[in-house]
Amino acid sequence: MTVRGRRVAAVAALLVLVPAAGCAGPSRTGEDYRNKAASTAGAAASAVNTALIGVRAAGDGRVTGPYVSVLLGDAETDLLAVQQTFESRQPPDEASDAVRERLGKALGKAADALAAVRIAARRGEVRELPETGRDLPAAAERLERLEKEMSS
Amino acid sequence: MKRLLAVTLGVLTAIGGFVDIGDLVASSLVGARFGFSLVWVLLLGVVGICVYAEMAGRVAAVAGRPTFDLVRERLGPRAALVNLIGSLLVTALTLAAELAGVALAIELISSVTYLLWLPAVLLMVWLVIWRTRFETMERVFGLAGLALVVFVVAVVGLDPSWSGMLDRALHPEVPGGEGVPTYLYYGIALFASAMTPYEVFFFSSGGIEERWGRKDLAVARANVFVGFPLGGLLSLAIMAAAALLLHPAGVEVGNLSQVVLPVAVPLGKAGIALAILGMFAATFGAALETALSCGYTTAQYFGWRWGKAVAPRAASRFHVVVATALVAGTMLVLTGIDPVKVTEYSLVFAAVALPLTYLPILVVANDPEYMGRAVNGRLANTMGVLYLAVVLVAATAAVPLMIATKAGQ
Amino acid sequence: MNPQEDTGARDGGASNRRPGRAYSAHFHLLDRQVVDREGRPVCKVDDLELAHDEHGRPYVTALLAGPAALAPRLGGLSARWLAAVQRRMSVGGGGGPARIDFGRVTGIGPVLTVDLPEGAAGVHALEDWMRDEIVARLPGAGRASG
Questions:
Q1: Residue A96 distance to chain B (closest CA, Å)
Q2: ipTM for the predicted complex
Q3: What residues 48-107 of chain A have any CB closer than 8 A to a CB of chain C?
Q4: How many independent structural domains does chain A possess?
Q5: Contacts 24+ apart (CB under 8 A), C23-31
Q6: Is the confidence at residue C145, as pLDDT, over 70?
Q7: What is the third-level CATH fold of B2-404?
Q8: Is the pLDDT at C6 greater than 50, yes or no?
Q9: B337 or B75: which leads in pLDDT
Q10: Measured between beta carbons, which residues in chain B are less than 8 angstroms from residue C127?
Q11: What number is the average pLDDT over the span A10-31?
Q12: Per the domain annotation, does C8 fall within a domain?
């Protein structure tokens, strides 16, 4: 094998390995756990804020039904993915249990709010979305606060 | 009008090659996450692709030789085979992402999951390659892709502070909360999305399909200098729109539906319709380009007959390679793998493959035996060497950065 | 052959050669594209067949094409892989590489032009098989899309 050949082999190996790097790694210390909680809160806030922008645009009659239902469906899928990854993570100490509980609740609220708007959008209730999604701003704010608190 | 239509190869290459799924995702993602701080990378990429596409187009017009043909001649059969395999993997991965992009665009209009649309997309792309004239293909998808101009209108509609935007673009800083490695990782992805190797394979092969000769040098140049900056402008608009609307809200782009959001807010339903049309055309065009490029590179390495100008009967091996790539790409997406992730990985591996593509072009463009008096001038060589250095740095850093940042997390 | 070895091409009717110019087999012949009179791609020069004149100097007698000619030049895994598919891909009759007599070469430039007898496009076994078994069975295979 030439040097170049080896490089190609290395790239091929990475092609297989790297996607695995996206999965949840183990957290060994409480600090590590907090950092991961912070990034989870950030990703969740991103999903909720996406929905919020979509929902407000829907209230102004600026979006088509199929588009907004895909947008909200995607946001919900993203949120559920980060929620699941976070909850399957083992908290290393008791301080982490508290972090887990607080963020867990915030994620749950956000998931409920997103599910509500997704359901309404699929039913074609586009104009009423801001009303259906009235919990979204609070959910987003809560997640953003947690992100800030836990990354400090 | 005829002159205007003559630049459609450049427009298609740019719309389908520059503004493909990779750019839609990378520009929007980078804009939402890093604001205007990576605009300089996009500009760097646009100039780079112009430099090398101009060389590849000139070689195609003067020597009548497509890029991959020369790769083997200059690198020897062994290194060129490694190059071929690497390019095929990257191009096929990109093709998979483009097919998913077409299906996702249809999902945004129909709200029926993209996985169900994939078989239909596969069939449509193949039929266009099988039956449509090269020029028709170029014009339809290149011009429909221009609907993406709606992103430029959206930026205006978002009523930004122009001087503020300019200031942030000119004085880039890594945004708070982001590490320097992550910043560089996305910078490389963005750079690779501008300089993706299949763009030059397609552009030079397309020139030969259109039977460019020495007299068409002006057409070739016009294609480069109209098409790619136009593509760059559209990418810039996508990035700016995301930076204006999504960045302040802390949104991270992970879906194609989010890419459209900055158009929906200022422009409403008509904006959404145009953005989706543009995305459909751009990803469809890119799917055609990547599928054809798989065939072009393989056929050119082995010296087979290739192209759409001959009957499929006379270039059967070429058509078999194209169809195989299409089926393989579709199957990869049908596994349910996240198409946006596929796009991101394809960009990083494209960065690794960049030097293998661009070095032979630079060498041949300097060879008077092929080029006669049309060899590289001083400007083309200075730029070519500079960019080769940039490309080498990007290629070396891409994979270590990917590991260090866990693919940009 | 050893690709480093430079040889003068035999007088074979190469029309656009300038007198007194020596050709490097490595740079001017190997891995070049071969086209027919109409400029249609035929194959690549995968290897060369050499003979020696009375002074022991080597000269080129034929162009060799196809995986059977290419595989030995690659070496390693890729050579074995190519050799494995070689029977299908071989150009010309038998298992050996296709041979184009150097006398048929009418031009040496960026591409090598050869004067092939009509119907020589049918000598690619793999192309034949793919055309007959797959491509020709699809509707519209006989018309160029342009």
A1: 22
A2: 0.88
A3: none
A4: 1
A5: C23/C108, C25/C1, C25/C60, C28/C108, C29/C60, C29/C63, C29/C108, C29/C112, C30/C3, C31/B72, C31/B73, C31/B76, C31/B77, C31/B80
A6: yes
A7: Amino acid/polyamine transporter I (1.20.1740)
A8: no
A9: B337
A10: 304, 316-317
A11: 57
A12: no
